Amino acid sequence: MIDLAIMPTPAPAIVALDPDALGRNLERLAEILHACVQEGASVGFVLPFTIEEARAYWREKVAPPHAAGTRLVLAATVDGAVAGTAQLDLDAMPSKRHHAEVSKVLVDPRFRRAGLARALMAEIERRAAAAGRWLLTLDTAGDEAFALYRSLGYRLAGTIPHYARDAFEARWAATRIMYKDSMGY
Ligand SMILES: CC(C)(COP(=O)(O)OP(=O)(O)OC[C@H]1O[C@@H](n2cnc3c(N)ncnc32)[C@H](O)[C@@H]1OP(=O)(O)O)[C@@H](O)C(=O)NCCC(=O)NCCS
To answer: For 89-141, how does the pLDDT look when each residue is reduced to its tens digit (9 = 90+)?
Structure first.
């Protein structure tokens, strides 16, 4: 018998979702967001957090800018099923058209440490560069995500204390502001 627990995760395929694909995959994207928040990820939500709130996030906060072309939404698929996602906010004022913000890099807990986030970030960076966005910024509270971004060359600009409420408890946790300048200025 094959022990599935030790089977390596196949390499992910990274795709940019169009509005139809976002709609078709909304339930799966909501499940991934829901799972990440349930385990305490600091991605804007606090517990209790329902699957309907997760669906509403994708429907109300993501779909409109995505349909307007100012938000890139990537999906990492494994064996044809979405297992991770990442976003790039391209909505910038005229003075900041070299800049974009990375957000909601979320990997289904069952597919962690298999290179999905790294693959998503590589595609985010490739598409950002193609759009002339050479300065990428993000904020992150979690140590795993901090390790991920550090490993990809993001630099710590600073830390803001009491930035967001902890997902589980009524206390405010710090966030780290990070950036990557691919022009090397
Ligand atoms: C952070 C997160 C996206 C990483 O996803 P992942 O697919 O497991 O990451 P990868 O397998 O691509 O890891 C790439 C690198 O990141 C670092 N990293 C990722 N997870 C780590 C962990 N738990 N501990 C230490 N380093 C970690 C490592 O350097 C790793 O490289 P390695 O495996 O060769 O050592 C995932 O843990 C997640 O979804 N967390 C909850 C949501 C979240 O906090 N998102 C970030 C919002 S800004």
So the answer is: 999 999 999 999 999 999 999 999 999 999 999 999 999 999 999 999 999 99
Give, for ligand 1, the residue of 101, 106, 148, 175 to mutate: max count of ligand atoms closer than 8 Å to Cβ. 148
CA 23 to ligand 1 center in whole angstroms: 26
Q: Which of 167, 171, 166, 141 is nearest to 156 (CA)?
A: 141
The ranges assigned to domains in the chain are 11-181
> What are the angstrom distances between the C-alpha of 185 and each of 2, 52, 134, 135?
51, 44, 10, 10
Q: Ligand 1 within 6 A of 147 CB?
A: yes
Q: Which strand (E) or helix (H) includes residue 126?
A: helix 116-130
Q: Sign of dihedral through CA atoms 125, 127, 132, 133?
A: negative
Q: Whose CA is nearest to atom 48 of ligand 1?
A: 140
Output DSSP code: residue 61. Answer: I
- What distance in Å separates the CA atoms of residue 146 and residue 167, rounded to the nearest whole number? 17
Query: Rounded to the nearest 5°, which phi and psi values hold at 123?
Result: -75, -35
pTM of the model: 0.96
Q: Which CATH architecture has domain 11-181?
A: 3-Layer(aba) Sandwich (3.40)
